[in-house]
Write a structure and sequence with these properties.
There is one protein chain. This protein is an all-alpha fold. It has 15 helices and no strands. α4 packs across α6 and α6 runs antiparallel to α7. It is globular, with a radius of gyration of 19 Å.
Length: 302
Amino acid sequence: MKLLDLLVLTVIFLGYKAILILICTLSSFLYVYDTSTSFVLKQPENILQQIITSLMRWDNVYFVTLAHRGLLFEQEWAFGPGFPYLVRLFTDSIFFGKSLYNYALVSIIISHLFHFFSILILYHLTFKIYKSRDMAIVTSLLYVISPSGIFLSAGYSESLFSFVTFLGFIFFEEGYSFLAALAWCIASTIRSNVPQIPNFILSFPCIYLSVRSGAYLLKSKNRVQKFTEKLSLYYTTQLLLTILCICVMHVQIFTRMISYLPGIYWWLANYLLNDKPIFWVKIWVLYGMVQAVLFGAFLPPA
């Protein structure tokens, strides 16, 4: 990776994160739909605690609680143990106190770090497959503004899951099948999805992009064989997961799930590099902003 590319990715990553966190924090001063956070964290006493509180929503309440005291109730088995365990490991290594604010802060830091690491791995993976620096940088920038949005900033398992999944793709491309399988096995301890009926209206943009990009590459397979014979496997998997989403997943699960499907980013990057309209990029950014507002106010369907 060129130093300039790394600098560009870092600056845009930090800038976009700052915007999302600011929106989320300001939204937390609105009427809060759910008060679960108040049962776990005490009233914030400073700006850092206010930011942490605004990012501790929905599943993160479970993740932080699990990191703090382990599994206790039956419904908590719906969450993979990988992310809470990592949060506990780092928190207990860094802090002496058992404050839940410490666990929440570490969960947020881990999410940010592994989102950034995932961006770097996706850059490497894209360059290896497409042999194009432009394709790699545009794909990576698209992943910065992924529709997963605030979930890649709050203490959720999406960032860590994407990192391990992308790492498996790298091993797969390098021919290390065992290491790829091992990485994906580890990934299965991080994410688990609960079947629900999807809201097709809200999820339509992501479902459309997933189907469109997968179908496009499989249809034009002969044109991309010069890059790698394995490329079609990415899109076949993507289409199968999209079908699974339509059948059993909730909208907000799928918009987060595509954070580890590189095919969507590759298709959209190729779309942009050929001077096509940036409509979908605008949709992604808008969705990310709205999502941050909903998340900060503890409102569905963030």
